[in-house]
Every structure is written in structure tokens, then in C-alpha cells.
Specification:
- The protein folds into two domains: about 90 residues, no CATH class; about 140 residues, no CATH class.
- The chain is built from eight helices and four strands; from the N terminus they run ααββααββαααα.
- The strands form two sheets. A two-stranded antiparallel sheet has the order 1-2. The chain has a two-stranded antiparallel ribbon with strand order 3-4.
- Strand 1 and strand 2 form a beta hairpin.
- It binds zinc ion (2 copies).
- One zinc ion binds next to loops.
- One zinc ion binds next to strand 4 and helix 5.
Length: about 240
């Protein structure tokens, strides 16, 4: 029979082992359970088992301790970076100009797909509204420019398929044509007929009232246009 104090300390030790085993088991480290149970720890860096010199030790050696500090700092820095990116996005979202940049890109590329679909549904070769040429560097050509009438910058009636470098950029939309090309207005007539073309032009010329833009509404539009773009692109690829 052992003296009671020895038995008590032995019981206490067994209890510690059992507790440590429970802890290790909970953390899914079953293979090291028994050794960790007797006071060994797993190094956070190299994963080897070591005898901790204090209850706070997490690394087996000075080297691993340094690596651990570096890792923790990297983690903190990444967290700070993520947070500031998030704050910047939040700030930008409320900025109408930023919203316009995003929205115009989304709307324009969706309109190009919509226009290509318009032609393909009719079995026609897509052509530039202003010069009538085919197989061009397509863009979404505004009849009334964003600078002139910003209120209809996202208006389908104000935008048709156009060649980018020649009519859109070099000739600022090529509205009235030149000796080689018909121009936007004639293009509308040839495509939709005289009456419809006149209505389109009247519509664009009458919409001069300034628009009060709302960033949340703009985000909703953008989401819709992006979905439409993907859907149209998918349909055209499948065709
Ligand atoms: Zn280590
Ligand atoms: Zn053109």
C-alpha cells in the first residue's frame, strides 16, 4: 500500500493525462495524443513534438519561434490590408462617378451583345450603324454622347452597334456621315425605317432633363446588365 500523498499525486497526474488527451482529441490530433498528454507540445511551425519550457511556448526552438512571430505578423498585415480594401470599396460604392465608370462598362458590353443578337436573330451580318461596314472592332456607339446628354447614357434607344476606331473615336460617332459613309442618322433610317428613325432621334433629343443618380440603383442595374451580358454571350456561343 502506497502512502496517501503518493497516491494522490499519481491520481492527479492520471487526471492531467486524461484531460490533455481529451483536449488533444477535440483538436483532432489523435496521433500525438499520448505524448502531448505527458506534457509534450506540438511545434506550431515544424509540427514536431517538444518539451515546452513554459506553458506559453508554442515553438520548439528559437528558429521556429522566429518563424512563428513572422507568420503571425504576416497574418495581421493581411487582415489589415483586407480591412482597408473593404473600406475603400465601401467608399467608392457611394461615389457616383465611380459608379458611372463601372456602369458604363457593363451597359456598353451588354449592348454590344444585344446588338449582335439583334442581327443574328434576323440572319443578318452585324454592321456599323454609321458606316455600314461589317466585321469591325465593335463598340456601343452613343447617338447623343455621354458628355452632351448624360441622362441617356444607359438608354437602349440612344445606343447601337458601331465600329470603335473609325466612327466612334475618329469621327466622334459619325452622326452625319461623310463622302464615304452614310452616318448614324441615315444608318438608323436604313435599319429601322424613316418613321422609327425619326422617333428614335426625337426621343434622344428630348431627353435633356438632368437625372438624379442613385448609387444603390446603379448597382442594381449593373448587376442586371452583367447577368444579361453573360446570358447573351452564352446564347450566342451556343448558336
Ligand atoms: Zn519547430
Ligand atoms: Zn463605322
Amino acid at each position: 500500500m502506497e502512502p496517501p500523498t503518493v497516491r494522490r499525486s499519481l491520481l492527479h497526474r492520471l487526471q492531467q493525462v486524461a484531460d490533455a488527451q481529451k483536449r488533444a482529441g477535440r483538436q483532432g490530433r489523435s496521433h500525438t495524443r499520448s505524448l502531448e498528454g505527458v506534457g509534450m507540445k506540438k511545434c506550431k511551425v515544424c509540427k514536431s513534438l517538444f518539451n515546452p519550457y513554459s506553458s506559453l511556448a508554442v515553438a520548439c526552438s528559437q528558429n521556429c519561434a522566429l518563424v512563428h512571430v513572422q507568420n503571425e505578423n504576416d497574418k495581421k498585415a493581411a487582415k489589415v490590408k483586407k480591412q482597408s480594401r473593404k473600406e475603400l470599396t465601401e467608399f467608392k460604392r457611394r461615389n457616383i462617378r465611380w459608379q458611372h465608370d463601372q456602369c458604363q462598362t457593363s451597359f456598353n458590353r451588354m449592348r454590344v451583345q444585344e446588338e449582335l443578337m439583334w442581327f443574328s436573330r434576323r440572319g443578318l451580318e452585324p454592321e456599323c450603324i454609321s458606316c455600314g461596314k461589317i466585321k469591325m472592332d465593335w463598340c456601343c456607339g452613343h447617338f447623343k454622347t455621354v458628355g452632351a446628354q448624360s441622362g441617356i447614357r444607359y438608354d437602349r434607344m440612344n445606343t447601337y452597334l458601331q465600329c470603335n476606331r473609325y466612327c466612334n473615336q475618329a469621327l466622334s460617332g459619325n452622326l452625319d456621315g461623310n463622302k464615304n459613309t452614310r452616318g448614324y442618322k441615315r444608318g438608323l433610317s436604313e435599319r429601322f425605317g424613316e418613321d422609327a428613325a425619326r422617333q428614335i432621334i426625337e426621343h434622344c433629343e428630348s431627353k435633356t432633363a438632368p437625372v438624379k443618380w442613385d448609387w444603390q440603383e446603379m448597382e442594381a442595374w449593373r448587376k442586371e446588365w452583367n447577368e444579361q451580358f453573360r446570358e447573351l454571350q452564352r446564347q450566342r456561343e451556343a448558336a
